[in-house]
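TA notes, week 10

Several of you asked for a full example with nothing omitted. So below is the full record: structure tokens for the whole chain, then the designed sequence directly under it. When grading your own attempts, check the secondary structure regions first.
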């Protein structure tokens, strides 16, 4: 059994050191693309800048596109509401067969039996409609404003979503690089332990621990690779690219873009200027105008009307009809209409409008409270991340001190290579965690800035990232292109 066990452990050790197992080699240069050469899947890697993703998202992102279409719809409604204040012109035509009982003494010898054609031109202009037309016009304008605020909010949400996905790309590629280096370090340590075993110095437990560590590192590598594919697929959908099975985005930036310093400001004012809040205010205003529209049927409607009528008559056949050269009827009238009974329809519409206004007021308060809670949560998270980053800086200094100590002991022959490797691995792990925390911290800063800048946030983002992109890995462009 001992011989079989030794043979089994030797085969595992040989597989670890051989070039057939996935996740061993690092493509050079290391800071560009670190995809394992021995992986089962070799993807097509597409290098992208955050600027490229943002420009495509402005065209293809579904939320932005929906918001743009909604604004076009509201603009069309506003333009069509102008018709409420313009005269209405209609043309009426009537053809009829008129029969007269010529045997009746009253109509004996009459020439009214025949075909009659009547044409009328009608011009009508509403003078007063109980204020419903004015309220409808204002409602259309308010709806356009609500749509504009909603479009800005959707653009803001798309920016934050893209920053999150791009930040995930950065962290996943960094994790992939870290795990490959850890795998390489563990493999080198495994060689040294195996050599020690052959000399009768090391222990089998050390070998087993290293094999388990290498297995766990490979699992983390696979997890990072799968997450990279998922994040790339999500970004592909956001920017309108077809989702490909073997397609990966590689970020050319080394960090998320830096942003302006978060300003000191009155967050209550920030809530009032946030596009979500302003859209809620516009919805409440629309509900108020809807009440005015619902009250309009309770007031008389006054119209001015002008009508001219032409008539032709033929005693024999329609084609013999001769149109009159002059209108035989011309009328000017003032039309007054007042609804007296509509089956409780008008009262029901008014009651519904009042209840809807009460509902929008409650929703407006909910939006205000929700924004306040979101802002407080972001500011609280920022403080936590700041404290965590400071703690990590202290831990990194301590780990660097430990590494220097073990290195000095090894040089004097008093330490072991394992102690040095563990210290190096600890520093690498702290650096990875620090990098991830910094990415997440910048995400939170951008989110906090979106609350602080309100409707100006998309312009700030475009100015800071698209117009002045920072932290690009331009030295990788030639390598990635080739």
């Amino acid at each position: 059994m001992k011989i079989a066990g030794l043979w089994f452990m030797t085969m595992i050790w040989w597989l670890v050191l051989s070039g057939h197992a996935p996740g061993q080699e690092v493509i050079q240069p290391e800071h560009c693309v670190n995809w394992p050469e021995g992986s089962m899947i070799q993807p097509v890697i597409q290098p992208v800048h955050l600027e490229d993703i943002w420009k495509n998202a402005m065209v293809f992102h579904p939320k932005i596109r929906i918001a743009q279409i909604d604004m076009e719809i509201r603009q069309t409604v506003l333009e069509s509401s102008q018709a409420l204040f313009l005269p209405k012109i209609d043309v009426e035509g009537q053809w009829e067969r008129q029969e007269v009982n010529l045997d009746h003494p009253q109509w004996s010898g009459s020439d009214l039996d025949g075909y009659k054609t009547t044409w009328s031109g009608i011009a009508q202009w509403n003078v007063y409609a109980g204020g419903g037309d004015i309220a409808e016009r204002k409602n259309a304008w308010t709806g356009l404003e609500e749509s504009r605020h909603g479009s800005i909010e959707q653009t803001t949400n798309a920016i934050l979503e893209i920053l999150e996905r791009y930040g995930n790309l950065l962290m996943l590629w960094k994790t992939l690089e870290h795990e490959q280096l850890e795998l390489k370090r563990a493999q080198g340590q495994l060689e040294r332990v195996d050599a020690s075993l052959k000399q009768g110095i090391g222990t089998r437990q050390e070998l087993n621990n290293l094999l388990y560590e290498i297995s766990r590192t490979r699992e983390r590598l696979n997890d990072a690779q799968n997450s990279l594919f998922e994040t790339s697929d999500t970004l592909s959908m956001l920017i309108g690219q077809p989702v490909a099975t073997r397609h990966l985005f590689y970020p050319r930036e080394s960090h998320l873009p830096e942003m302006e310093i978060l300003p000191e400001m009155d967050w209550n004012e920030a809530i009032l200027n946030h596009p979500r809040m302003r859209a809620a205010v516009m919805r409440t205003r629309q509900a108020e105008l809807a009440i005015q529209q619902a009250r309009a049927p309770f007031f008389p409607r006054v119209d001015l009307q002008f009508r001219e009528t032409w008539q032709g008559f033929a005693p024999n056949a329609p084609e013999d009809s001769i149109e009159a050269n002059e209108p035989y009827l011309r009328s000017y009238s003032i039309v007054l209409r007042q609804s007296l009974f509509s089956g409780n329809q008008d009262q029901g519409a008014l009651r519904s409008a009042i209840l809807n206004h009460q509902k929008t007021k409650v929703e407006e308060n909910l939006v205000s409270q929700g924004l306040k809670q979101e802002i407080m949560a972001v500011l609280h998270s920022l403080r936590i991340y700041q404290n965590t980053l400071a703690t990590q800086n202290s831990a990194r200094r301590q780990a660097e001190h430990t590494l220097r100590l073990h290195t000095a002991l090894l040089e004097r022959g008093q330490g072991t290579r394992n102690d040095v490797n563990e210290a190096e691995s600890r520093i690498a792990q702290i650096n990875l965690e620090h990098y991830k925390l910094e990415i997440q911290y910048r995400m939170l800063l951008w989110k906090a800035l979106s609350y602080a800048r309100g409707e100006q946030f998309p312009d700030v983002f475009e100015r800071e990232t698209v117009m002045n992109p920072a932290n690009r890995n331009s030295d990788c462009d030639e390598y990635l292109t080739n």
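The chain is about 60% helix and 15% strand. Use that as a sanity check on your answer.
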